[in-house]
């Protein structure tokens, strides 16, 4: 080997070692940085064979593990949304041990009726019946209003999430262009690839994604249900939020917005369409199924209570077509108008002195024009019995079987509590699974011990190349002195 070749080899080695030191120091500095993949320098002989050259910086990523971790993160995000909704609904209705739960309010009304029946002449006891009935209807109204607010919030969050998805897809598309351009120019694109990975990680929380590599270092994004979101260019998702979602509004009937991809409507729902899963899928499921079912259960209970008190023969003074003690916004309940009844159920104004009514009608009948015998407690006893006798709900959401009003309310609370327990169990599993994949991913990340060992090897190589240059310098000095 000539001195020139040896010098060229040593100088190229020093340059490669310097680049390797930069990469190793970057790995160590970013060992805890989210989304950072360890780098490794790739080397090759120069074309003339007189040295070594850096051919690129390679990110060390396990794409299979990355994909599994993203899917687990997506499932966890969906479970978090569903569990939060189930907890909120259960809190609105109350648990059996809470005095302000529906079962507690209903028990208070039963006790008030029984107590008033023993002393029907006591105005205070009649007033207690009125207060308990109003408290029960207010509790049902409040629970229905809470469910409506949760449904409206889900619709609003869908709009925000769609905007985030659009923005993220545009960012990935722009990064694809920068990465392919940088690769063609031979510049380091690893930082851009890290940024793209972090962006796709965020998008995977919205909807479960698969990353498909393309030959030019760009990637395509497709949902696990087969919806193409990005391939060269990003699609555009559109959704129109509804300011106030009422129980009567549904997506199937066209009152609520669906989602369109590039102007084409797509099926939505927990088990169909290209956007199922993730936070977006969970929000759609809450708006179109979970909240609707919770409201239907509440409507079924409200209907049962109203029908118990407007049953024929219960109050002989009540005129035909007139409502009972509990009403549909002051009117008689019609079987075809059950939707949203939980938000309209109210105590008749005929027994409320603050609305021009009279307490004696609780004792003497809603159609009574004047007070009857003070000791007549038959109607109060009949009202109490109406709550305890068994009936079958017209809705099947709370199961079949004849039950008392209290047992129907207990079944409602139990079903909502079970839904909360189920969603929290799914959340626990999804969280554990996501944490395990995250731990595996971190295990394949920057290994500080291995990086320090590599640094020692680079240091030795650097010293060897420096020694070679020093030796060549000494030889040239010797030749020049001859």
UniProtKB/TrEMBL annotation:
Molecular function via GO: structural molecule activity
Domain Flagellar hook-associated protein FlgK helical intervals: 99-320
Occurrences of domain Flagellar basal body rod protein N-terminal (ranges): 9-36
Subcellular localization: Bacterial flagellum basal body; Secreted
Domain of life: Bacteria
Keyword entries, A-Z: Bacterial flagellum, Cell projection, Cilium, Flagellum, Secreted
GO CC annotation terms, alphabetical: bacterial-type flagellum basal body; bacterial-type flagellum hook; extracellular region
N-terminal signal peptide: none
Keyword Cytoplasm recorded: no
Domain Flagellar basal-body/hook protein C-terminal residues, every copy: 444-482
Pfam families listed in its UniProt record: Flg_bb_rod, Flg_bbr_C, FlgK_D1
Any GO BP annotation: bacterial-type flagellum assembly
Family to which the UniProt record says this protein belongs: Belongs to the flagella basal body rod proteins family.
Entry protein name: Flagellar hook-associated protein 1
Organism: Roseovarius mucosus
